[in-house]
Amino acid sequence: QLQFVESGGGLVQPGGSLRLSCVASGFSLTYYAIGWFRQAPGKEREDVSCIGSSDGIETNYADSVKGRFTISRDNAKNTVYLQMNNLKPEDTSTYYCAAVRPINLIVGGVCVPLQPTDWGQGTQVTVSS
């Protein structure tokens, strides 16, 4: 299965910034579209953002993070990033990354993870004053 290691989370005040990293474990992620997801206690998992394979020209964002978050990739480092600016308390969650379906095949949504999905440990983001 495709496995990833997430990092970069932490405690930040409202309005602050964090950059999350998603590193592929044991394989190249160049030819995979990658998505970020988040899940808070008592809530369902929600899509955050996804990026197309290779050049990463295609991107999707949830309405709740548009204009604040930016997804990018560095294939040489086998890493996908999520730059999060102007963080809000409602962004508090555990963030996960996973391989997703090609973005141009998604209708009416943001990201659809490939199945089966081996969710990693995730990285905790807490936004609080």
What does this structure look like?
The chain is mainly β and 129 residues long. Helix content is 0%, strand content 43%. It is built from no helices and 10 strands. It has a 6-stranded mixed sheet, with no helix packed on it. A hairpin with a 6-residue loop joins strand 4 and strand 5 (46-51). The termini are far apart.
Structural class per helix/strand content? mainly beta
Strand order across the largest sheet? 2-10-9-4-5-6
What general outline do the C-alpha atoms trace? Answer: globular
Can you give the mean pLDDT? 95
The low-confidence parts are none
State the major sheet.
Answer: 6 strands, mixed
> Tally of extended strands?
10
Distance between the termini: 39 Å
With helices defined by DSSP (H or I, 4 residues minimum), what is the helix count? 0
Q: Helices and strands, in N-to-C order? A: EEEEEEEEEE
Radius of gyration: 14 Å
Helix fraction? under 10%
| Beta-strand residue percentage | 35-45%
Task: Please describe the structure with a list of short key phrases separated by commas or semicolons.
0% helix, 129 residues, six-stranded mixed sheet, 10 strands, globular, four-stranded antiparallel sheet, mainly beta, 43% strand
